Amino acid sequence: MQENADNTVHRPKTAVLAVVGRTNAGKSTLVNNLVGEKVSIVSPVEQTTRNTVRGIVADARGQLVLLDTPGLHKAVGRLGTLLNRMARRSAAGADILAVVFDASQTPQLEDRGWMERVAREKPDKTVFILNKSDRKSFAAAPFHEAWKEAKEAAAGESGPAVEPVWVESAATEAGGAEAVLDAFFSLAEEGELLFPEDVVTDYPRRLAIADTIREKFLVRLHQEIPHELGVLVNEIEETPECWRVKADLIVNRQSQKPIVIGRGGEGLKTARRFAERELRRVFGVKVALSLWVRVEPGWMKNEDLLMRMGYIGDVI
Questions:
Q1: What pLDDT does residue 75 have?
Q2: Do both 236 and 277 map to the same domain?
Q3: Domain C-terminal end among 165, 190, 215
Q4: How confident is the model at residue 53 (pLDDT cuts 50, 70, 90)?
C-alpha cells in the first residue's frame, strides 16, 4: 500500500502480460531486461523459447507478471503446433497483450498476423513494441502502415479496433526498455500483489535447468540441429554442497549424435562447463551435470516426452 500526502491509500498496480510476437523479435531479451535478471534463454537461433516463462517485475508502482512466450512461426510438426498454441493461449489469458516487433526489418507475415488478430479480436489493452530501435535499419513507419491496413481489413467485420499503445525499445541496451515499463504500468490496475516481492520467476526449476543446458548447445551449434535438439532433466539430487543433475540430450537421428558430442567429446564438455557455470550463478550452489545424448526418432511428435519437457500442460 502507498499513502500519498493527502492521506489517500493506493494499492499497487498489477497485471499479467503476454509478451508475444514472431520468433527472434527480441522477446526474451526484453523480458530479461525488464526483470533485471536472466529468466529466459537467449540465442540468435529462431524458436529459442519453447515454454511460457514467467518473469516478475516489481518496483515502487507495483508488480507485473510477464509471460515470455514461444515466437509465432510457420508450424512444422506437433511441436511447432504446440509452440504456436502456447503463444495464442497466453495472449488470451493475459490482462495486457504486448506484441514485440523487430522493427529493424520490414513487417513479416507473422507480424501482420498479430496485427490482424488484434484488429479482429479487439483486446482491451494492447502495447505494440517496436524493438531494436538501436539498429540503423530501424523504421517505425512500415509498422504503422501495416496496422492501418489490418484495421481497415477488420473494420467491416466487427467495428473499429481498439488502438494499441505504441512504444519504441532497444532491449539490449541498459535503460532501453524503460519506456516499455512505463507503458505497461500505465495500463495496469490497482490490486493485490500476485507473488512475493522477492520472486523474479516461478518457472519450474527442472525446466529452467533444461533451458540453460539447451541454450549452451544452441550457441555452439547455430543452425546445425537446434530445432531437433531437446533436453529432458531426469533427476536432480540435492545436497547443500552440490546439485547433481542427470539429463538427456535428445536428437532425431543417429547422424546428429556426433554433432552434439563434438570431436573427442569437446562440444559436450564445453557446453556442460558453461551451463554449470551459469546454473551456479542462478541457483547459488555448485551444479554438476551428467549429460547423455540419446537418439529418439520423431521425439517432437511423442506426447509423453513433450509433456515431460513441459510443452504440454497449463500455460497460466
A1: 40
A2: yes
A3: 190
A4: low
pLDDT reading at 80 higher than 90: no
pLDDT at 150: 93
Q: Which domain holds residue 278?
A: 205-308
272 in the same domain as 172: no
Summary mean pLDDT of the chain: 80
Query: What is the Cα–Cα distance from 230 to 217, expressed in whole angstroms?
Result: 10
Three-state helix/strand/coil letters over the chain? CEECCCCCEECCEEEEEEEECECCCCHHHHHHHHHCCCCCCCCCCCCCCCCCEEEEEEECCEEEEEEECCCECCCCHHHHHHHHHHHHHHHHHCCEEEEEEECCCCCCHHHHHHHHHHHHHCCCCEEEEEECCCCCCCCCHHHHHHHHHHHHHHHHHHCCCCCCEEEECCCCCCCCCHHHHHHHHHHCEECCCCCCCCCCECCCHHHHHHHHHHHHHHHHHCCCCHHHCEEEEEEEEECCCEEEEEEEEEECCHHHHHHHHCHHHHHHHHHHHHHHHHHHHHHCCEEEEEEEEEECCCHHHCHHHHHHCCCCCCCC
Q: What value does the mean pLDDT take over residues 217-236?
A: 77
Q: pLDDT at position 129, please?
A: 96
CATH number reported for the structural domain that contains residue 118 in this entry = 3.40.50.300
Which of these ranges, 110-124, 149-163, 243-257, 302-316, has the smallest mean pLDDT? 302-316
Q: Are residues 217 and 252 in the same domain?
A: yes
- pTM for this predicted structure: 0.63
Sole residue written with cell 525499445 = 169
Burial of 209 (0-12, 13-18, 19+ CB in 10 A): buried
